[in-house]
Design brief:
The structure holds 2 protein chains of 2 kinds. By secondary structure, chain A is mostly helical. Chain A has one domain: ABC transporter involved in vitamin B12 uptake, BtuC. Helices cover 73% and strands 1% of the residues of chain A. In chain A, strands 1-2 form a two-stranded antiparallel ribbon. The longest helix of chain A is centred in the last third of the chain and has 27 residues. The radius of gyration of chain A is 20 Å and the shape is globular. The model of chain A has no long low-confidence stretch (mean pLDDT 91). The termini of chain B are far apart. In chain B, a hairpin with a 2-residue loop joins β1 and β2. Chain B is built from 9 helices and 10 strands. Chain B has a 6-stranded mixed beta sheet, with helices on both faces. Chain B has a 4-stranded antiparallel beta sheet with strand order 2-1-4-5, with helices on one face. Chain B is 37% helix and 26% strand. Chain B has 2 domains: 133 residues, P-loop containing nucleotide triphosphate hydrolases (Rossmann fold, 3-Layer(aba) Sandwich), CATH 3.40.50; 75 residues, no CATH class. Classes of the chains: A mainly alpha, B alpha/beta. At the A-B interface, α8 and α9 of A face α2 and α3 of B.
């Protein structure tokens, strides 16, 4: 960790330290609305980071990451509701179940050479099957969903609490995922992922076990994403198969890293800080102008996305880092 | 004992027999060249040794171990490094990171691997360009990066697939000098496919001539180029 910090250029250290200080102190000044938007930003930065490990680093396109969010949420919520096991313990089970699904998808895809868009289709199919499956599991509330009771008094040990608790928890998740990605990018597996992403055959010729590298990517990515699922289940207090496993949820997850910069450590964070407020602003704006017919917000959102991607096809972060001179040439 | 033994290897693609019973041995410390006209089966032979393809018959052994059923990554881990005929460095990675990926094979720490990568890049005259993206390199540089990356895996045997092709004479001489140094000072055995006879004559200790997948000549370069079968099938009369 200390070594990781040392590798950050001086200007970058100042920016990181400042940003962290501001975000830690912000609840003193900001109101509940601002905190809830920031919580959402942190959440998308977190799950975006998890997806980015698999796509941005290892080059494996998943369009079904809602599967891992949903499984994480359902497993932890069921453990809590049915057996009284709190989410701090439940998260381990949630990660295990999601990683098992990730392993199954990865094994099928990578073992049988299902690559690119076909692999992406496989990930969508698994999310859809699981959605349909949960629609019929009565134990998990079937299509009617699950509801978590809101407690009068905060119980942080059971993730029952208010805006402030979830704000700090989301901040910790996003920060943790950022640090983990920065660390992974500098390890053997991180470099192996890049090699696999760039050229599988050449990677193999350098002695890299491509199958194992890809499996590591999907296991880590699905496990991390499930933690986001636990968070979102206990934050929103309800779970419906048609909502959590929906492909729109999967798309939501991948937008921030794409806009911020695929395969970069800060891309998902920057992307989340752009897209979530953009959505909020558009909602406010269409409300104010009285044009909040269905689809209007989505149309503007899509337009904004197109503009950003046309202007910064490699993502906003690489450009931003250059402008702010936050990256330096390595020794 | 020979480092590499290729014994009666056959590879067919549908009706075409690309490699037809080729047999040869490469001793430790040799620079062994495989020449022959286009379509003679040279690259197929390479891919058989590197594990990209499995032979239909015959055996390939490295240091006495059968390798013809192993995967390319397992073969690399045994100590065989290779380059590709159409160079394929990792385009979005820097020159240094390209070599680093190779260096990580035999080193656990990234910093140790980086130091080794620097070492290898110096040998290939690429150290000063280590922060450039591989996609920004010229062809001669990319060819040398391809060699550097394979070399970074610490191979005992280096398979080079037409690393001179497309190079100007001065660049060819530079590559020849580099390969000679690798062979003499670092004890790396080299098996190369080459069309550039100037390089073959300067480097090779042994030459194998393939024609329609079969070996038609094997011996010292000076002897092989005098054989009538080689002249008529590949070199042409004017080469003399």
């Amino acid at each position: 960790m200390i070594e990781l910090w040392r590798s950050v250029p001086p200007r970058g250290r100042i920016v990181i330290a400042l940003a962290l200080a501001v975000l830690l102190a912000l609840p003193l000044a900001a109101d509940r609305y601002v905190l809830s938007v920031l919580t959402l930003i942190f959440y998308f930065a977190y799950v975006g980071q998890a997806w980015n490990l698999m796509m941005g680093f290892a080059g494996q396109l998943s369009l079904g990451h809602a599967l891992y969010v949903g499984l994480g949420g359902y497993v932890s919520a069921l453990l809590w509701l049915k057996l009284g096991i709190g989410p701090w313990l439940g998260v381990f089970a949630a990660v295990a179940v999601a990683a098992a699904f990730g392993a199954a998808i990865g094994w099928l895809g990578f073992r049988f050479g299902i690559a690119g868009v076909y692999f992406a289709l496989l990930t969508i199919a698994f999310a859809e099957f699981t959605r349909i499956g949960f629609d019929h599991i009565d134990y998990a509330g079937a299509a009617g969903g699950l509801f978590l009771r809101v407690e009068e008094t905060g119980q942080w040990w059971n993730l029952r609490g208010g805006t402030l608790m979830f704000y700090y928890l989301a901040l910790a998740l996003a920060g943790g995922a950022l640090a983990l990605t920065a660390w992974l990018a500098r390890t053997r597996i991180g470099y192996q992922w890049l090699a696999v992403r760039e050229d599988e055959e050449a990677a193999r010729a350098l002695g890299i076990n491509v199958f194992r590298a890809k499996m590591a990517a999907i296991l880590i990515s699905s496990g991390l994403t499930a933690v986001g699922g636990v968070f979102t289940a206990f934050y929103s207090n309800n779970l419906f198969p048609s909502r959590v496993f929906d492909i729109n949820r999967s798309i939501e997850i991948i937008l921030a890293p794409i806009v911020g910069g695929l395969g970069t450590v800060f891309g998902p964070v920057v992307g989340a800080f752009i897209l979530t407020p953009l959505g909020e602003v558009l909602t406010a704006l269409t409300d104010r102008l009285g044009i909040n017919a269905p689809g209007v917000k989505a149309a503007f959102y899509g337009l904004a996305l197109m503009v950003i991607i046309v202007l910064r096809p490699a993502g906003v972060w690489p450009w931003l880092a250059r402008v702010l001179r936050l990256t330096e040439h390595r020794r | 004992m020979s480092l590499l033994v290729v014994d009666q290897v056959i590879k067919r693609f549908r009706g075409l027999t690309a490699v037809d019973g080729a047999s040869f041995q490469v001793g430790a410390g040799e620079i062994f060249a495989v020449i022959g006209p286009n379509g003679a089966g040279k690259t197929t032979l390479f891919n058989l040794i590197a594990g990209v393809l499995a032979p239909d018959a015959g055996a390939i052994s490295f240091e006495g171990t059968r390798i013809d059923s192993l995967t390319p990554d397992a073969i690399c881990r045994l100590g065989i490094g290779r380059t590709f005929q159409l160079v394929r460095p990792f385009p979005a990675l820097t020159v240094e990171d390209n070599a680093l990926v190779g260096a990580l094979l035999q080193r656990s720490g990234v910093e140790a691997a980086r130091a080794h990568a620097h070492d290898v890049l110096r040998r290939l005259d690429l150290y000063d360009k280590r922060h450039q993206l591989a996609s920004a390199l010229t062809l001669p540089d990319r060819k040398r990066l391809e060699v550097a990356r394979a070399l970074a895996t610490d191979p005992k045997l280096l398979l080079l697939d037409e690393v001179m092709a497309g190079l100007r004479p001065a660049e060819t001489d530079r590559m020849v000098a580099i390969l000679r140094t690798l062979n003499r000072e670092h004890g790396i055995t080299i098996l190369l496919i080459e069309h550039v006879m100037r390089a073959v004559m300067a480097l090779a200790t042994q030459v194998l001539v393939l024609h329609h997948g079969a070996a038609i000549a094997l011996g010292k370069p000076a002897d092989v180029v005098r054989e009538p079968a080689v002249i008529s099938s590949y070199l042409g009369v004017e080469a003399l």
